[in-house]
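Take a look at the protein record below and flag anything odd:
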Amino acid sequence: MTGFRTLFVLTIACLGAAAGFGASPADGGLEAVFKSMDQAAPGFKGLTADIRKVAYTKVVNVEDVSEGTIVVKRMKPRDTRIRIDFKKPNQQMVAIGGGKLEIYYPKLNEVQEADLGKARSVVDQLMLLGFGSNSADLQDAYTVTLGGPEPVNGEKATRIVLIPKSKEILQSVKKCDLWISDKGITLQQKIDQGGGDYLLSTYSHMNLSSTIPESAVKLEIPKGAKRTKLK
């Protein structure tokens, strides 16, 4: 996948951090979802989870399915680091943080990297979807509506729909659906990229943690690995 598509996957993958624990969304609708976000935002430090990602391309009717694990660590406000280790079907490690994106392919011993400085405004807008953001910031950047109750893997959840207000974001993300469990945890996210293409990320075994070490969100790249720049 391209660097920016990977960036979207990483950003949406961490939306589970935004909900945390709180009021039951299914009981109170959109306001209950906002309440759970606001209760969890101040104390969010990080999380670990299993991830299943589906990248669907309509023009060729192909689903690219990947499975692995994700680690998120919030260093400080507006400084969140992420690492995803995809294990199936192909091993691939991705890290984002400190204004940089890195993708490591162990079989090739190659690292692809990108400087996110020029895309910082886009990154900041996408970050508002998660990482302990409060409902006020979310509504400031997105138009949020209630989708309704929809279970995920047999677990009760409420879907909410987010439409970016930024014209720049709308070029790549037409809308984002979040599925919030009755416990206030985001179980699934779907990015509509337009033209029928979408990215769907589903999480399991999620664990909120305040003790994730910084080393857990860094890539362990062997010496001698080939490095190439993503444009």
Summary: The chain has one domain: 3-229. Helices lie at 3-13, 16-19, 25-40, 120-127, 135-141, 167-170. The chain is about 20% helix and 45% strand.
